[in-house]
Specification:
- This protein is mainly beta and 331 residues long.
- It is built from one helix and 23 strands.
- The protein has one domain.
- The protein has one helix spanning 324-330; strands at residues 3-4, 28-38, 44-52, 57-65, 71-79, 89-90, 94-99, 107-118, 133-144, 147-150, 156-169, 172-188, 195-203, 208-215, 224-227, 234-235, 241-245, 251-256, 263-270, 273-276, 282-285, 287-294, 299-307.
- Residues 299-331 are annotated as: Disordered.
- This is DUF7064 domain-containing protein.
- Residues 191-310 form the DUF7064 domain.
- InterPro entries: DUF7064.
Length: 331
C-alpha cells in the first residue's frame, strides 16, 4: 500500500499523477523529474520533462554523470509539446517517453538520443553545436519505496524510489541498480526570480532523504523528509542549507541541516544547464551528483541542485567562497 503524507493545504490524489489543465500565464509549467545514483556513486543521472503549454514548448533534459568522466547530456529548451495527455517527446535527434501506468507505482523512462559529450560540465551553459556527440540510451524503472511526499502549500510531490534497468553510453552498457527519486509539480515556475537548493539521496543504512529551501531571505517550514523501505516518508521540520561556492559559481559543498541527520553534500560530477526567459533573461542551474556525509558517520549518494537566477548572491544562503571562518570550521 502506498502511503501519502498529509500535512499541507492541498490533498494529493491519484489523478495528480497525470497531466493537468494549464493555468494562466506564459510561465505556467508542469514538470516531471527522475534521478538516480548508484550505491557507490560511480554512476548517476537525471531526466526532466518541463511542459510550458502557454509558451508553446517543452524543456527536455537527460544526462549521465560519472566522476572523472565527461558529462553526457541532452538539453533541449525548445522541444515540441507532447500531445494533450501524453508525455512522450520526439525530435530528429531523440525519442523520449515517461510512463506511469499505475498512480504512485512504477514509472518507466526510456530515451534513445544523440547526446553531447562535454569535457567541461560548464560547457553546458553555452551553445552545444559543434561539440562531440554519442548515443545515449536509457531504459530505467523507478519503483516506489513506501509512499509519496506532497509539499505543504504547493502542488508538488516527491517519491523515493529504487531504480533499475540499463544505461548505454556509446559502446558501453551499464546495468543499473540504484536509488533515486521522482517528482511531479505544476503551476507557475519563474526560473528567473528566486534561487533555491534542492537535495535528495540515500544513506548507506537504507534511509532516503529529501530537503528543499527557496532563498527568499527569511526562514520557513521547508519541505524535507526521511524514508525507510518499511515505511513511507516522514515529514521533518527545520530544514536549512548553506553553501560555499567556488570557481564558475559552482558549489564546493553544502551543509544540509536535515533534522536528525545533518550532513555535508559534496559534488562529484556536475550536470548543469542554462535557461533563458521569454524576454531573454539568463539563469544558471548547476546540478550535481553528490556524496553525502552525515555527522553520525553515515554516507550516501544522490543529487543536489543550486538554482542561480540574476542576483542570486544577494540572498543569505551563499556565504563568501572559501571564507577563512568556513575553512576553519571544516578543519
Amino acid at each position: 500500500m502506498v502511503r501519502i503524507v498529509e500535512h499541507g493545504t492541498w490533498r494529493l490524489t491519484e489523478e495528480d499523477e497525470s497531466r493537468h489543465a494549464p493555468g494562466e500565464g506564459m510561465l505556467w509549467n508542469e514538470s516531471y523529474y527522475f534521478d538516480f545514483a548508484t550505491e557507490d556513486g560511480s554512476l548517476g543521472g537525471y531526466v526532466r520533462l518541463g511542459l510550458y503549454p502557454n509558451w508553446g514548448r517543452a524543456w527536455y533534459w537527460a544526462c549521465v554523470a560519472r566522476p572523472g568522466h565527461p558529462l553526457v547530456i541532452v538539453a533541449d529548451d525548445d522541444a515540441p509539446l507532447p500531445a494533450p495527455g501524453e508525455t512522450a517527446v520526439r525530435t530528429d535527434s531523440y525519442r523520449a517517453s515517461q510512463e506511469i501506468p499505475e498512480p504512485f507505482g512504477p514509472a518507466r523512462v526510456s530515451l534513445d538520443a544523440v547526446a553531447h559529450v562535454l569535457a567541461s560540465a560548464t560547457d553546458a551553459y553555452g551553445d552545444l553545436g559543434g561539440t562531440e556527440t554519442t548515443r545515449l540510451v536509457l531504459d530505467l524503472e523507478w519503483d516506489t519505496v513506501g509512499g509519496a511526499y506532497p509539499y505543504k502549500d504547493l502542488p508538488r510531490y516527491e517519491i523515493p524510489c529504487t531504480v533499475s534497468g540499463t544505461v548505454r553510453v556509446g559502446d558501453e552498457t551499464f546495468d543499473v541498480t540504484a536509488s533515486g527519486e521522482r517528482d511531479h509539480s505544476w503551476g507557475e515556475r519563474d526560473w528567473w526570480s528566486v534561487s533555491w537548493l534542492w537535495s535528495s539521496g540515500r544513506l548507506d543504512d537504507g534511509t532516503w532523504f529529501h530537503g528543499m529551501q527557496a532563498n527568499v531571505g527569511f526562514p520557513m517550514e521547508w519541505p524535507s523528509f526521511t524514508a525507510a523501505r518499511e515505511e513511507g516518508p516522514v515529514h521533518l521540520d527545520g530544514f536549512r542549507a548553506e553553501t560555499v561556492f567556488g570557481p564558475d559559481d559552482l558549489p564546493e559543498y553544502s551543509r544540509l541541516g536535515l533534522k536528525g541527520a545533518p550532513m555535508t553534500a559534496t559534488p562529484t560530477a556536475f550536470a548543469p544547464v542554462a535557461v533563458t526567459s521569454p524576454d531573454g533573461v539568463l539563469a544558471y542551474f548547476p546540478r550535481a551528483l553528490c556524496r553525502f556525509e552525515a555527522e553520525d558517520g553515515r554516507t550516501g549518494h544522490g543529487w543536489t541542485e543550486w538554482h542561480q537566477p540574476p542576483g542570486w548572491r544577494d540572498h543569505d544562503w551563499a556565504p563568501s567562497p572559501n571564507s577563512a571562518d568556513d575553512q576553519e570550521d571544516r578543519s
